[in-house]
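Chain A, query sequence.
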Amino acid sequence: MKIYSITPDDKFKEYAEFGFQDEHQEAVLETWLENNPENIIENGSLLIIGRQVTTNLGSYIDLLAIDRQGDLVVIELKRNRTPRETLAQTLEYASFVEKLGYEQLDELFRNYTGDEPLNLAQHHRIYFDLVSDEAVVFNKDQRIVIVGQKITPEIHQTSTFLRNKGVRVTCLEFTFFKTDDELRLLSTSIVVGNEAALKVPPRPPPIPPRISESTFFNSLDENGKFVFEKLLAWAKSNSFPIQWGKKGFSLNVDLSGTYVAFCFGYPPNCVFQQSIYSWRSGLLNKTDISEQESQILFIEAQNSGLFQPAGRELKCLINQKFSEQQVDSLIMWLTNVAKEIKKHGLKGQGENHI
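Chain A, predicted structure.
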C-alpha cells in the first residue's frame, strides 16, 4: 500500500515506508494495540484484561481481551518467529485460556487494572453499553488475533484453513510510514477474517484513574460520611490494608504479603450506589474457607438486617441514616470475616490460626 500527501501545487508526494523494527521495539506496538482496542478485530471493540499474561507452561500472552459477547481474544505479535512457531504459539495460548473460569478472568482483570473493587462483569456491561436483558456467558468461545508487519503466505493459508474449520482467527497486517517532518502514520489491514466486516462502534471510554481518600469523602452524602469515617478508622486501627480503586476502596487482610479483600466501599456516583459490598466469591477463590463456613457468615450478615444478597455477594446500601449500634454491628460482622480469613489462610496452604 502507498500513501501520498497532496502538495499545494496538486502533486502527489509519497510517504516513505519504514521497517517498524528499525526504530521501535515490539513493546511499542503492543502498547499501541492496548490503547486502541477498537481497531484490532473485524467486528467491534475489545476490552483488554491482561498484558503479558503468564500461561501454565510459563510462556506469555502479549495481550488478552474479551469481546462484546464475553469470548476471550488472544492477541499475539508475530515478531521474528517462523510461521510455524507463530501459529503453534497462538494455538497453545488459546488452549490455555479455554480453561479459564470467570473467577480467574476477574482476578486477571483486577490485577491488570490494579483495582480490586472493579468487577469484570459489571465493567464489561458498562464498557460495551449492554442493555439490561443482553446476557453474557464469559469464555464460551475463544478467538485468535495475529499481528505483524507482514503476514506470510504460510500464516495466511493456515489461518484461513483454521477459520474455515470454526477456529476464529484474525490476521492484522500493518504498514509504518514517516513523513519528512517526523509525523508517524500507521496503516492497518485485516488480511484474514474480514469476510463480514461490520462498522466499528465508537471507542468506549477508558478506565478512569484511581481516586484518593479525600475525593471519595467529598463525593459522599452525610449518611455515607458517618458510616465510612467509622469504618476506615476501624480498618486503620487494626492495620487492614486499604487499596483505593477507580471509584471506591477495598479493605484487605494481609496474609504474608498476599492481600485478600473482604470489604468494598463505593460512593453515590457509582453503579453500585453508596454501599458496602462483601466479596464472598473472592473468599472462596483465595482462601481455604469452606462453602459451608462462608454460608454461615452469609446468613449472619442477612440476619443483621444490614445486608442483602447481590448474587454471590452481599450488599449494604447506605441510603439512610445509620445508628451507632448499626455501624458497630456492621464492623463486628466484618471483624468476624477477617478472623475467618486469617484462620483458614490462603487456598492450598492450610490453616493459619490466630
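The chain has eleven helices and 15 strands. Residues 196-201 have pLDDT under 50 and may be disordered.
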